[in-house]
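Lab notebook page, bench 4
Experiment: in silico fold of construct C2
Operator: M.H.
Input chain length: 160 residues
Purpose: comparison with the prior construct
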Amino acid sequence: MATIDRTDARILRALCEFPRASGVQLAGLVAMARNTVQARLGRWETEGLLAPFDRRVRPRDLGFPLRAYIAVVVDQHRLEEVVDQLDGIPEVLEAVGISGIADLQLLVAAADADDLYRIAGYILAVPGVERTTVSVVMHEAIPYRMLPLIDRLAGQNEPG
């Protein structure tokens, strides 16, 4: 069930376009009462609906221009322990449980190929990791995005 409604989506859309807008400015952009906008922003803050600010920082700007996806096969009896260990590797940007031939899919950032080799070694050394498959990101065809979904919810981009 969605926790963001059409009104929220309109405010989010404006924030995407003008991320530094104040509550008063946002109210003007979306033609809503300032109190409505402020209440929505307050609810998002309280409920933690927006991702942390660090999600906006690109790894390349921190000196990690190489990204790779690493599929990890794990001893199922040690899955939670493996995830706890992977969480301690700073270069692991994301870990998701997946179905198929692997159990986890990791997104990692590295300074270069040698650094990626080092990171892959750390991952393989985690007790419970049975094997990995590394796929280097060659080109970002469609960057991570939310705006098309926000636009759809706001009624600005109905599917045709």
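Observations: The two ends are 24 Å apart (CA to CA). The longest strand covers residues 66-74.
Next step: discuss at group meeting.
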